[in-house]
Every structure is written in C-alpha cells, then in structure tokens.
Amino acid sequence: MSARIGVVGSNMVDLVTYIDRMPAAGETLAAPSFSMGHGGKGANQAVAAARLGGEVLLVSRVGDDLFGGGTIRNLRDIGIDVTHVRAVPGAQSGVAPIFVEPSGENRILIVKGANEHLLPADVDAAAADLATCGLILLQLEIPLETVYHVIDWAAARGIPVLLNPAPAVPELDVSRILGATFLAPNQTELGILSGLPAETREQAEAAARTLVARGVRQVIVTLGAEGALLVTAEGPARHVPAVPVRPVDTSGAGDAFLGAFAQHYASHGDTLAAMRWGALYAADSITRQGTQKAFAGEAEFAAFREALGGG
Ligand code: RIB
C-alpha cells in the first residue's frame, strides 16, 4: 500500500473569538481575544498528516479573493501537493467563525463558499494523482455528490477511504458510503447518522453497531475526553483512551486525530496503533490555541510524547 495520503475536502479561514460566554439574543458582549488562522476540516486533516511527515495530496477549492492565495501558499509551505487546489472565479473562500469558551469547548459556524464548487469532475481531473494514494480522506464540507463519487471511484480501485461525516448532514445516504473502509464520526455526528443517542461510550457503541448492521465496515467514534472507539462486525468494540491534558482550545482536535491516524495508518496499516497515535496527537493539539496552527511538527510531537513518558 502506498503511504501517500489523498484528501478531497474543504479549506476555510478560521475566525476564532475566545469568549467568556456566548451573548444572549440582543446582547452585545466584549470578548477577551480574537485570532485568525487557516482551517477547514479537509485542509486541517491534510496539514496534520503532513506535519507528521506524511506525503499528502489535497484536492480542494479556494475563492478568488484575498484569502485564496494565502491558503494555497500556506498549504504549499507545509509541503502539501497543491496541484489540485484551485481558485473558483467569482467565489468567496470558505470561512468559519469559531467561538471558544474558557473550558476550551468550541462552537463553529461554516460558510462553505468555494468548497461548494468541488465537483465530481474535479475529482476526475485529479484521478491520476489520487490513484497513487494508499488512503483517501473525505469530510462533508464539500458537495455530497463529490463524496459519493470519490467513494465509488476509490472502491473500484481498491483504495481505502476514511469518511469523516463532519459536519453531520441528515441527508447523507448511508447506502452510498458503504464502499468506505472507515466511517469516523464524533458523538454528535454519530447521533444524527444513527438517529440514536450517542452521549455515553455505551450508547456510542450501540449506535455504531446499527451502522455496522447496515453495512458500514468499520466505525471509529471519537469521544473527546473519553478517547475513541473502534466498532466492527467482528468481536467486541475496542477502546483507545484519551491522553489527559488541560485543554486550551479543542477546535480542530478531531481533525488532528484523523490526520495523525491517516499518516500512521498509511505507513503501517495498523488501525488500533493509528488510533492511539491520533489520540496522542489530538491531545497535544488542544494544549494550544487555533486549529492548524496548534498542530505540532514531528520534533514538537516527539517532545510531547517524551514529556508523557511514552518516548
Ligand atoms: O474541525 C474544525 C474545523 O471546522 C475548523 O477549522 C473550521 O474551519 C471548520 O471547518
């Protein structure tokens, strides 16, 4: 299997406001600080994998505005192959206003902008390069038709796909994602997809099992401070505990987990080991503010593991 990772997904400019609390309707409230950064679930996962030394190809669309060029430069500087990251004439770049509470909890709005223009034909145009990848990552900040197209295309070629159904969209047709090797929702997304509560680990396992019963091959549920769960048709669920840290900003933690998972899995093919790697990397990321800018490089991540005593 090739260790190259393909990401077909979004990019956004994150507008992060650190708040004491959300204002009530009609209320104006001063907030302590603000920070802008590169984000978007697709780009975040690509950046996490690349920061850990993964070879990454991103297929994405930016606006032809102030943000577009900066987004492409940022991705290129990190070492991501941006051959298929293009500007859409007349479109605005995606943006994400994010609100982070003192506990580190986040609330995110997205305005997809140019990401809505990433179409199946764009995937076909990138097909020769995507065919060199050993794993393809997808999220739901691009049109659903594009997501289904990538899954069908990759399944026909035997290329594993990880679908992160984020943000959850109730109209996602589960019968059209069965070609994916992994489905990786968080608890909110799992609840929406399954129609069942998924707040506790037990509920999450039960909800994931209903998806497996519908033909989903492997469900990786990210559980925040509780770690992650792997649910498949064979045997009991496997739990990977979270690494305890004091959270500063949890925005992008799921993307850190999945980007690191992808980098490890594409190199070693060991699902549980890749989940442990992802949990470590996500824990490190939430000790810093921001999304991509909180993602450690290899040396910084090694220092974090060393400090935990894990080497
Ligand atoms: O998962 C975090 C990301 O969600 C942010 O970077 C934001 O851009 C939204 O896409």
Number of E-state strands? 13
Q: Describe the main β-sheet briefly.
A: 6 strands, parallel
The unique ligands bound to this protein are: alpha-D-ribofuranose
Order of helices and strands, N to C? EEEHEHEEEHHEHEEHHEEEHHH
Helix run count: 10
Radius of gyration: 18 Å
CATH architecture grouping: 3-Layer(aba) Sandwich
- From the spread of the alpha carbons, the general shape counts as globular
Beta-strand content estimate: 15-25%
| CATH overall fold name | UDP-N-acetylmuramoyl-L-alanine:D-glutamate ligase
CATH superfamily: Ribokinase
CATH class: Alpha Beta
Strand order of the largest sheet: 5-4-1-8-9-10
Could you describe the 3D structure shown?
The chain has helices at 41-51, 66-78, 120-125, 127-130, 144-157, 187-194, 201-213, 253-268, 271-285, 298-308; strands at 5-8, 12-18, 33-39, 56-63, 81-88, 95-100, 106-108, 135-138, 161-163, 182-183, 218-222, 228-232, 238-240. With 311 residues, the protein is an alpha/beta fold. It has a single domain (5-19, 31-307), classed as UDP-N-acetylmuramoyl-L-alanine:D-glutamate ligase (3-Layer(aba) Sandwich). α5 (144-157) links the parallel β8 (135-138) and β9. α1 crosses α8 (253-268), α6 crosses α7 and α8 packs antiparallel against α9 (271-285). It is globular, with a radius of gyration of 18 Å. Bound molecules: alpha-D-ribofuranose. The site of alpha-D-ribofuranose has 15 residues, from β2, α1 and α8.
